[in-house]
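Bumping my old thread because nobody answered last time. Still need a sequence for this structure:
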């Protein structure tokens, strides 16, 4: 069996593929690179013909990211699996380092690392997340997705236990998979960067750009799926209530942050839709976030959006990744 497979999904962005593929190739020694062409209508297929040593899979009807990733999982052969978005990159030898560490923890289901966050071609001076919880992270990952998707390596055997990605929740499919794995298996973390992650913007059109949709889907997934997982369903009521408060607090912070970014980019309708989603969350958690400098933070961003760009007002550390 091949040691590891890196699955790269792409749709109408052929100019990005060579960089992503080369970074995947440099990430490990025994690596299968699976490129899933999600019904691209441009020269993606032609570009892939010139990329050596890839497993090229094309689907004729657009599956969106989760569906395309599932196609890649089925087509892959590696013992260890990893996803890479076409606009992200893997750092050299990072996959080998993670697998070496992973094999020292045979009970663990996945290993993740930090991501260097890139925004509009600029690299900040820090990596995400600042801290990397490991071991039993089930309740932590329920409240906030602190795991960068492109940094994860997980065992193929996990799929037999938890199933494939849920393609009904675009933008949350990776988080949902981490939750299902972490419910029963420990997680290992490497506290150093293994990938460069291109952060979405309100106008970028990426899957994580629509904060309103992500939070709405997330709240539904929390109640209808995650709280019905055996470990959560059998937990005391106070633990379940605390999990909902923590989830709501993080989602409220994310909505407010994304509203501020949308205001700054003159995406006023999007900013207002984000704020209108707040009442769907836990009221006390939302109030706590709003009262804890959030409105002042938002008003500052709103003022700056009318005054023009102010680089000093941008604090990348405030970014909350779903």
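Sorry it took so long. Here it is:
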């Amino acid at each position: 069996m091949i040691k590891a497979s890196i699955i790269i999904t792409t749709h109408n962005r052929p100019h990005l593929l060579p960089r992503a593929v080369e970074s995947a190739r440099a990430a490990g020694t025994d690596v299968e690179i699976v490129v899933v062409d999600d019904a691209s209508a441009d020269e993606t297929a032609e570009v892939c013909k010139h990329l050596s040593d890839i497993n090229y899979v094309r689907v004729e009807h657009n599956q969106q990211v989760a569906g395309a990733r599932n196609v890649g999982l089925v087509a892959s052969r590696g013992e260890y699996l990893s996803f890479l978005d076409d606009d992200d990159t893997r750092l050299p030898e990072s996959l080998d380092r993670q697998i070496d560490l992973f094999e020292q923890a045979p009970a663990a289901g996945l290993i993740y690392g930090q991501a260097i966050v890139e925004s509009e071609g600029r690299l900040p001076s820090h990596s995400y997340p600042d801290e990397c919880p490991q071991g039993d992270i089930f309740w932590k990952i329920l409240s906030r997705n602190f795991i960068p998707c492109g940094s994860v390596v997980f065992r193929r055997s996990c799929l037999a236990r938890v199933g494939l990605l849920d393609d009904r929740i675009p933008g949350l499919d990776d988080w949902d998979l981490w939750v299902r794995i972490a419910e029963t298996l420990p997680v290992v973390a490497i506290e150093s960067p293994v990938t460069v992650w291109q952060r979405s913007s309100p106008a970028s059109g990426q899957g994580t750009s629509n904060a309103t949709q992500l939070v709405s889907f997330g709240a539904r997934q929390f109640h209808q799926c995650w709280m019905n997982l055996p470990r959560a369903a059998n937990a005391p009521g106070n633990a379940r209530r605390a999990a909902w408060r923590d989830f709501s607090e993080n989602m409220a912070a994310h909505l407010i942050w994304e509203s501020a970014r949308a205001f700054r980019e003159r995406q006023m309708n999007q900013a207002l839709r984000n704020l209108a989603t707040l009442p769907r969350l836990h009221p006390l958690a939302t109030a706590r976030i709003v009262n804890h400098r959030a409105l002042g933070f938002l008003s500052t961003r709103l003022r700056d959006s009318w005054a023009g760009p102010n680089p000093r007002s941008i604090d990348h550390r405030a970014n909350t990744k779903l």
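The radius of gyration is 20 Å. Let me know if any region looks off to you.
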